[in-house]
Every structure is written in structure tokens, then in C-alpha cells.
Amino acid sequence: MRSRIKIGQRINSEKDNNWKFVDTIPVDTPVVVVLGGDGTTTPKAANGYAKKILRKLENENMPDVNVYSVVYDFGDSVMGCRPLDARKIQMKKFGRNIALDDVYTQENINPNYINELFEIAIRPRLEKNGEKIPVQVAMQNIRRINFVAHCHGAYTFQKLEEMMQKTMTDLGYTSVEKKQIQKQLLCIAHAPHCPLENAKSTVINF
After folding, report:
1. Residue 146 Cα distances to 7, 29, 108, 116, angstroms
2. Distance CA 43, CA 169 (A)
3. Do the Cβ atoms of 65 and 25 come closer than 8 Å?
């Protein structure tokens, strides 16, 4: 079985059962999407991340920001994604001195769960009916989505950025427009297990 993704929304920071699976993320309102570590394979784990972020937003008088978090399903041992191998491939790609095996499956090079997350979270902000939208609108759409990434979540974010770059090229955005749009995407990364120093988005690492 290939890897999959599920997305949930945190409704209230004080009630543990106020987290629910969703199929979409709104484009026209500010949102935070939490990409947890590779242990975020249960709703309970994803809910824990989201609860912390929503509480911080509420403490800063920003209760209207919708908070979402992802649940990874890395699939089975044959057809699925092995998170450590996926991160090693990415580290090698960016020049790290990492020893790799001779053969990796496509799931470890380009995991399916990344594709699923991109289709829900990013693509609707860049196009309509398969056509690119005005650059100013795309910039506004992208600015409204913010990522908080922990450990493996930084890898997930970087793969989303790569897909975003390719998609914008395919849609016909110019190099200047791509740069303008991409810089609107914000990620705050805590203990990232991924080389983010060459990110084209706006990234804060700690």
C-alpha cells in the first residue's frame, strides 16, 4: 500500500475531542497547517500538535486562525514510504555526505502522501479550472497559508515547495512571478530534519 495523508482541524484548544478530519482547507481565510514528525501517525498525535499551536494563537488574541494538522500513513513495508530513507535521499540531493542504498522505490523518492497534501493545501491557491490565476491573487492565497514543521515535517514542507515550483512552471507563471508567489509561503521549522537553507519560501528555522 502506498503512503497516504489525512488532515484534521482543531476547533478549540481546551476540549480534547475538538479535532475532526476534513477534506479541504479554505483558501480565503488565514490558516496554519502543522506538519509533525514522522511519529504523527495517529489522530491523537496530530491533535496534540494542533492543540499547542491553537493555544498560542488564542493567547495572542488570534482565535480566528484555523489550525490544521496532518496524520501520516506511510503505507506498507513494500510499496510504502520509509521516512528515514526519504529524508536521506533529500539530504543527499542537497549535497550532504549521506550513504545511500543502490535502489529506492518511487515512494521514497516522491511519496504519494506529498502529492495528496499538495492537491489539498497548495494547488487550489495557484489555479482555477487548470489555468493560472492572476499573480496578485495567487500571492494573497499563498500568504494565507502558514506551515509549522517539526523534524520530518520540514522534509514534507520542502517536497511541497518543490511541487509548487514545478506546478507554477507548468501553469505558465514567469520566473519573476514564481519568486513573488513562493516568498509569500511561510514555514516555521522546529528541529528540521532537512536542509532548508536553500528554501525559496520564507522559512524560519530553530
Report:
1. 15, 11, 25, 18
2. 35
3. no
Angle at 193 between CA 187 and CA 195, to 5 degrees: 70
Q: For the sheet containing 19-22, what is the strand order?
A: 19-22, 4-10, 66-73, 31-35, 145-150, 186-190, 202-205
C-alpha cell at 123: 494547488
Q: Which residues lie across from 70 on neighbouring strands? A: 7
Half-sphere exposure of 147 (CA within 13 A, CB side): 33
Task: Give dist(CA 63, CA 76) in Å, integer.
Answer: 38
| Parallel/antiparallel/unpaired status of strands 131-132 and 145-150 | unpaired
pLDDT digits (tens, 9 = 90+) for 32-86: 999 999 999 999 999 999 999 999 998 999 888 999 999 999 999 778 898 988 8
Alpha helix ranges (H) inside 60-151: 83-93, 106-109, 112-121, 135-143
Q: pTM of the predicted model, to two decimals?
A: 0.93
Distance (Å) of CA 10 to CA 32, 83, 124:
10, 25, 21
What are the Cα distances from residue 53, in Å, to 14, 26, 175, 192?
Answer: 12, 18, 34, 17
Report yes or no: 152 and 83 within 8 Å, Cβ to Cβ.
yes
- Judged against a pLDDT cut of 70, whether residue 102 lies above it is answered with no
79: which 3 cell numbers?
510499496
